[in-house]
């Protein structure tokens, strides 16, 4: 009888340790965030290039664009982050560095086309 | 795959950005003739860039899809369909046979 109780206890512990959110839905939400960030970094890069930003100004502009994106994504989540994500970092920081690379690429591309050629 | 409203808006935004780039090159050509220095893009280009950014932000927020709730008990995650092979699932249990016998024994 003791062994039976023990195994029952163990299984209930396993149930308690189980994650309390849907991993597939979280992954799908993250994919949506990556799409949005990548697209807006490209657009931000083009705009920075057309405006003729050089040096630090461009990176400040990137921070600005990403801040706008974060606010827009939070608004899309109807300001209840914990319904759709497990932490704030997911919506505020994920995809930041990858977007930076796209941003620099299109920034230099647009700057070259508009201001150099 | 049909074009959604958000996709069309994003496309218009990108077109506006291209037009802004073209206007800037024209303006640079004008500056070359008048031999002025480039201090910043003209006003209409700035307006176009802002409009383009707003449209593209709208597209980037709406096009990739909707957020799905990660709460296991929310309405989004309810299972609304039964498995297709219900006819092959047998709902039977030995208790069906055993329980009447036990009751008989206890009565005796």
Portion of residues in beta strands of chain A equals under 5%
**Quick check: average pLDDT of chain B?**
82
Largest sheet, strands/sense/barrel of chain B: none
- Looking at the chains present, what oligomeric state does this protein adopt? heterodimer
C-alpha termini separation of chain A: 84 Å
Q: Quick check: average pLDDT of chain A? A: 83
Q: Distance between termini of chain B?
A: 73 Å
Instruction: Give the number of helices of chain A.
Output: 6
Rg over alpha carbons of chain B:
34 Å
Query: What overall geometry of chain A do the principal axes of the alpha carbons give?
Result: elongated
Overall structural domain count of chain A: 1
Number of strands of chain B: 0
- Give the overall form of chain B: rod-shaped
What does this molecule look like?
Chain A has 117 residues and is mainly alpha-helical. Chain A has one domain (22-116). Chain A has six helices and no strands. The longest helix of chain A has 29 residues, at 23-51. Chain A is elongated. Chain A starts with a helix and ends with a helix. Chain B has 108 residues and is mainly α. Chain B has a domain at 5-68. Chain B is built from three helices and no strands. The longest helix of chain B is centred in the first third of the chain and has 30 residues, at 5-34. Chain B is rod-shaped and about 110 Å long. The relative contact order of chain B is 0.13. The mean pLDDT of chain B is 82. The A-B interface holds A 20-22, 25-26, 28-29, 31-32, 35-36, 39-40, 43-44, 46-47, 50-52, 65, 68-69, 72-73, 75-77, 83-86, 110, 113-115 and B 10, 13-14, 17, 20-21, 24-25, 28, 38, 40-41, 45-46, 49, 52-53, 56-57, 59-61, 63-72, 74, 76-77.
């Amino acid at each position: 009888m003791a062994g039976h109780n023990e195994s029952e206890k163990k299984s209930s512990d396993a149930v308690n340790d189980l994650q309390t959110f849907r991993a597939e839905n979280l992954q799908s939400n993250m994919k949506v965030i990556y799409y949005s960030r990548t697209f807006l970094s490209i657009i931000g890069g083009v705009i920075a290039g057309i405006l003729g930003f050089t040096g630090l100004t461009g990176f400040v502009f990137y921070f600005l664009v990403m801040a706008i994106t974060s606010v827009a994504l939070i608004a899309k989540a109807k300001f209840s982050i914990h319904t759709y994500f497990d932490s704030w970092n997911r919506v505020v920081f994920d995809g930041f560095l990858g977007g930076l690379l796209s941003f620099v690429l299109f920034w230099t591309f647009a700057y070259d086309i508009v201001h150099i050629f | 795959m049909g074009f959604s409203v958000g996709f069309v808006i994003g496309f218009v935004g990108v077109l506006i950005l291209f037009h802004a780039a073209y206007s800037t090159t024209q303006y640079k050509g004008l500056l070359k003739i008048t031999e002025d220095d480039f201090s910043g893009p003209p006003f209409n280009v700035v307006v176009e860039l802002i409009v383009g950014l707003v449209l593209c932000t709208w597209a980037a927020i709406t096009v990739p899809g909707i957020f799905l709730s990660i709460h296991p008990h929310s309405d989004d995650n309810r299972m609304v369909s039964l498995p297709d092979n219900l006819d092959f699932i047998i709902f039977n249990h030995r208790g069906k046979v055993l329980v009447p016998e036990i009751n008989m024994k206890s009565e005796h």
